[in-house]
Amino acid sequence: MYAFYSLLVYIFYTVFKKEEEEALGAAQGGASAQPGHVSMETRSRRKKDHTHRKERKKRGRGSRLSDSSSSSDSDGLSLSDEDDDDGGGGEVPDIPACTPLGAFLSFKQENEKRREVQVQLETAGKLMSESPLVAVMSHLLSFLEQYSHLQQLQQQADQYRVQLKRHRAQHRRQMKTLRTSYRQRLRDKNSVIDSLEEAITTQQYTPSTPGSNGECGADVPGAGAGAGLHRLVESLYGLQGEKSQLRGELRLLHSQLEQREQDRHSRVQVFQHQIDELKSCIEEREEELSRLRTASGATDSEKRVVCLSAENESLKQSLTVTQGLLQQLSVIPSQSSSVLIKENENLRSRVQQLESSLQQRADQLSHLERQSEQSEWRRGEEQRRREERVRELQLELDKERAKEPQVKIVTQTVEVESPATLRQLAEARERNEQLSEKLTNQNEKCRQLEEHIRKSDEFSCNLQHKIAAYEREISVLQEELLKEIGHLEEKKEEAVKAAATCSVEHFQSLQDQFFNLQKRLTALPPTLRTMKTDYASLRSQVRNFSDFYGAAITDAKKQISAAMREMSEANKDLLEKYRKEVALRRKYHEQLVELKGNIRVLCRVKPVLKEDQHEEGQSVVVTTDPNNESALSVLKGQGRSHNFELDRVFHPQATQEEVFQEIEPLVTSCIDGYHVCIFAYGQTGSGKTYTMEGSTENPGINQRALKHLFSEIEDRKDMWIYTVTVSSVEIYNEVLRDLLSKDGEKLDIKINPDGTGQLHVPGLRLIEVKSFQHIKKLLAQARRNRITFGTQMNQHSSRSHALLMITVLGTDLASGAKTTGKLNLVDLAGSERVWKSGAEGERLKEAQNINRSLLALGDVIQALRGKEKHIPFRNSRLTYLLQDSLGKGNKTAMVVQVSALESNVGETMCSLKFAERVCKVELGPAARKIQRGGGSHQCD
Ligand SMILES: Nc1ncnc2c1ncn2[C@@H]1O[C@H](COP(=O)(O)OP(=O)(O)OP(=O)(O)O)[C@@H](O)[C@H]1O
């Protein structure tokens, strides 16, 4: 079976290859142009893929991502072979073209280009798909398509991974810029604090001058100056409280900033963690993909194909052939692959949309993060400056506190030097007021700064919210992306599983077939050997047998020919004996018949003619026995049959000659001086006229009898002289008519006045005939003159009894003895049932007369049979006329005509029963009418 498939596939492959080459040659002006074109296109496509890949790699390098995961870029097994021009092609392991899979894939790619050219081979390709091997290869093809789809997905995953890395790098850059902006802000804050510090320094410088002056002028005591100093100290304490308050606030702000920084950091960590998770997820997918690629059914199938190819040369040939067939099969559009491609396109567009939206979100996020980092940095800087300023103010305050005893001394001094001190005090108060104003201004500035910090905090908070919202969006998008990837993975796994299962099943079945074939093949050699030995022995036997057979046949032939000779001799003897026996029996029978004077009764069965089949489907009820010429059986119906035993029965196919041969001896006896009567009896249409007269081509008893008479006369002419006279009459409605007379006058039967007592018909024409030709004319005339009409039973029914009376007067030349022989040949009118013949009027009268005369004949027969003294010959013209022939010492033969059809079974039974009665009639020994010397007498 497998060999058959292989042969079939090979034949198809050869045919299709040839047609394909012709088609390609016709379509592209040469068989060699197409492969080059295809390879060019393939190369250009490969180059495009390669350029795209290179760009991606450049981008990957540009981002300076040194993650270990970046090495996975080169993990994928791409369907598009890349050139190694740039030396970087080694990163992507190409499928070697020498492997079956590589050849298969390149074959497939070329086939995709040839599809349009090979449309005319679709029908043949469809036919080929019915082969199991082709089905397997189609499954392999679909599986490889799935595999290429998987590779595309992997490439997309790689792209996503690279994009994620790029996003991460961007985030890092943004974080860096945020940090720098934060530092910048801190620096700004420090500068603000420096400006405050300067202001405070200026404020300090102003009291230090009076202090130095006071030191100089301590000798000038004054009460106003002491109060001013006291207020100054109080204001300084107030300032110190305010500073400590500001410090607390700044600490609070600092802690808040730290908290926010921590939050931000934690968020960044969470985001980083999510990115890592995504990365690990992608890596897992990659691993899974690689695992699937290395351990999935495709590789197994491929390995199995290779193993199978290696195991069996025939399978290898089939695989090669199948590769060729793939060209044909590739033109068959795969609905599933087209759907997958469509889905893949949709997914690609969807992924692109998601990528673009993700890119936008990432850009916005980076921008916001940058702003946030800047604001945070500024706030940090400001806080730092404020802290430093507070610290310095604290130091100033401590210094001022440390100077307090001098002030008291100065105050005492002022009390002593009152006018100068008062003036200084006034000046100090003025300065104090100025400082107060400055402090107020500083406070205002601090408030403004605080307000600014608050606003920046709010802005930062808003930014954090936005970042959180964007992160949520990113997470949602990531989830969607993961879902899509998962969905694609599931589809891919399903497709891979289905293809793998299918291919495994088909390979299993192929393997089973292969193993079965192997088993058969292994079982075949011993069988073949035994067959060979058997054949050799048989051959030798046959060779010997031919000699043996020839000798045996020769012996057998000899034996058979000897046996046949013996048999034929014995048969000849037997046949001779049989013939003699039959002749003897016949002779004895005839002698017996002659002695008894029985009427010989013959029966002739009419063949079934077309015109007799008035009713369709009539069965034949009369059967003859081929082994018994005297038996006849009539099936009466309901399974009952009646057997008749007559002198001779003629089957339907009996010829006129056969019938006459039976009559011939009687005809001969006529020449010898006997009175012979032969009459035909039977129902109308049963063949009486046919038997007696016959047709021109096939004459009946009348012609044959006369012919025989003349031949006998001719034979005896040396010894006897014969005179033959002929007369013919018909009895129609009990009226005698001369059939040889032209006027057809009526005749009467009378006793001959010569005293012989014989019947005499005055006026009847007696025509002496010299030749057979003469008698033929007379017979034709008589036939013409006979009255016939058409009835339902016979279109040319004879409505009269016709008598051909032949008188043969013979003179023995030697003795002078005279013989008078008479031959009455009677064709009786048909016995018929009036209702059946449809007779009416004149025909009815005819029928009644016919039946009456036949009844009279029956009465005569009955009387003769009963050997009654009175025979009623005179009851009818017919019996009266036949008195000479039917009476004692005459030879009589009756031919009973019967129909074999079921519809005539009643008439047939009547006729045969009448024949049976006639059979038993004993006329006594026949007497020869001879005149010797002077007197005539009868001799037995
Ligand atoms: N043995 C036969 N072979 C062929 N045809 C026959 C045979 N016997 C009778 N026929 C045909 O049957 C038809 C009727 O036969 P035929 O006229 O001799 O019947 P019949 O007994 O004389 O009838 P009827 O009493 O009405 O005159 C004729 O056409 C005749 O040719």
Automatic annotation (TrEMBL):
Residues 26-97, 362-383 are annotated as: Disordered. It is found in: Cell junction, Adherens junction; Cytoplasm, Cytoskeleton, Microtubule organizing center, Centrosome; Cytoplasmic vesicle membrane. Residues 243-295 form a coiled coil. GO terms for molecular function: ATP binding; microtubule binding; microtubule motor activity. Residues 598-921 form the Kinesin motor domain. Residues 364-383 have a biased composition (Basic and acidic residues). One of its GO terms (cellular component) is cytoplasmic vesicle membrane. Residues 26-36, 63-79 have a biased composition (Low complexity). InterPro entries: Kinesin-like_fam (IPR027640), Kinesin_motor_CS (IPR019821), Kinesin_motor_dom (IPR001752), Kinesin_motor_dom_sf (IPR036961), P-loop_NTPase (IPR027417). SUPFAM superfamilies: P-loop containing nucleoside triphosphate hydrolases (SSF52540). SMART domains: KISc (SM00129). It is a peripheral membrane protein. Residues 44-62 have a biased composition (Basic residues). It comes from the Eukaryota. Keywords: ATP-binding, Cell junction, Coiled coil, Cytoplasm, Cytoplasmic vesicle, Cytoskeleton, Membrane, Microtubule, Motor protein, Nucleotide-binding, Phosphoprotein. Transmembrane segments: none annotated. ATP binds at residues 682-689. Belongs to the TRAFAC class myosin-kinesin ATPase superfamily. Kinesin family. Minus-end microtubule-dependent motor protein. Involved in apically targeted transport. Required for zonula adherens maintenance. PANTHER family: KINESIN-LIKE PROTEIN, KINESIN-LIKE PROTEIN KLP-3. This is Kinesin-like protein. The gene is LOC115187602.
